[in-house]
Design goal:
single chain; Pdz3 Domain; elongated
Length: 363
């Protein structure tokens, strides 16, 4: 049931994204002849007055189809309600509406979470927690004797505060101290000890010591005094998740070789969602918001096939005064499709192979 819940969350987010495109087109009177969730063979379809609605076999996304791209369409090429015959602004609104829908939906998921489960409140203690130490022998933290469960309370005698920002302060100290010893004051159980750790440079030239960092404290939830209190609380949590997600994409792009292993495909996302659903189903709202924000940011990237790539084509059309030749656009788009499908297949195979149940079969 937890796996089905995670799949349902992904399906809802895909529907929301495609509904954004669909609604923006229909509100402007633009013709739409297909609304599909998934790709590949059709599992179910319904033919409306103008639009065919379908569910397909591969739940890796979805699409909204327009008669412009349908060689069998009976709509006249000069029809003013065809997508291609609309002004740039109208088309840009339709293309960007999916991303906007994901962002808005994520906000309301967090509002719902604040209103039903409670508003998150932080109960931070001094310092930064170390939930995991890289076990490699070359890890500076492991060499210095650091252990999972340690709490770093000071760096070079400078105390770390009681807030989420303490992590940022510690990270900045580590990143800017390549090959420079740092004196860390650590609280371990009831003892306070001192260790010296020397960050080594990663591929981006920034210091690292080989640990995971987390806020030292816990998040509690309280019920809002009234429903209106849930809206600013949802906005605050939305801003936090959005900033963290945006920073994560920045690190991925800036240091791709080291961060690429953290990229997750649909199998991994479902696995994480299933674990969340089995341990705390209420957290699925936050999980859905996180994935929805990720979908929005990914889709706005200026890459072929994605919404950002289509907006890039529109921008070039605005600069040139005419669209790129269809042959060039189709070539770029087809290349993007091949690369995207190749990446999706790779991630599915990798994440499936890493599933605990699969690994047990080969032990």
């Amino acid at each position: 049931m937890s796996v089905l819940a995670a799949i349902a969350v992904l399906a809802v987010l895909i529907v929301v994204h495609e509904l954004g495109h669909f609604t923006a087109a229909r509100v402007q009177g633009i013709r739409v002849n297909r609304f599909s969730v998934g790709f590949g063979p059709v599992l179910w379809k319904y033919q409306g007055a103008e639009t065919e609605y379908a569910v397909r076999a591969l739940p890796l996304g979805g699409f909204v189809g327009f008669p412009d791209d349908d060689p069998d369409s009976k709509v006249q090429p000069d029809d003013p309600n065809l997508m291609k015959n609309r002004p740039l602004l109208d088309r840009a609104i339709v293309i960007s509406a999916g991303v906007i829908a994901n962002f808005i939906f994520a906000y309301f998921l967090l509002v719902a979470q604040s209103g039903t489960i409670g508003i998150p409140e932080s109960n931070f203690q001094p310092g930064v927690a170390v939930p995991e130490v890289v076990s490699e022998e070359t890890s500076p933290a492991a060499e210095a004797g650091m252990q999972a469960g340690d709490v770093i309370v000071a760096v070079d005698s400078q105390k770390l505060g009681e807030s989420r920002e303490a992590i940022n302060s510690l990270q900045q100290e580590i990143q800017s101290s390549v090959k420079e010893p740092l004196a860390l004051t650590i609280k371990r159980d009831e003892k306070t000890i001192s260790v010296t750790v020397t960050p080594k440079a990663d591929e981006a030239g920034e210091g690292k010591i080989g640990v995971m960092l987390a806020p030292n404290g816990e998040i509690t939830r309280r019920q809002p005094d009234n429903i209106l209190e849930a809206f600013p609380a949802g906005a605050q949590e939305y801003q936090r998740i959005f900033n963290l997600t945006f920073e994560g994409f920045g690190r991925l792009i800036g240091n791709f070789q080291e961060s690429a292993g953290q990229v997750a495909g649909p199998v991994k996302i479902v696995e994480v969602g299933a674990n969340i659903a089995s341990s705390n189903a209420a957290s699925l709202l936050q999980f859905g918001a996180l994935i929805s924000i990720n979908l929005g940011i990914i889709n706005i990237l200026p890459l072929p096939v994605l919404d950002g790539g289509q907006l890039a084509f529109l921008a070039l059309e605005g600069v040139r005064g005419e669209p790129l030749p269809s042959k060039i656009q189709n070539g770029i788009t087809q290349t993007g499709v091949v690369l995207l499908l190749g990446l999706a297949v790779f991630l599915i195979i990798r994440d499936t192979a890493n599933l605990a149940v699969v690994q047990e079969l080969f032990q």
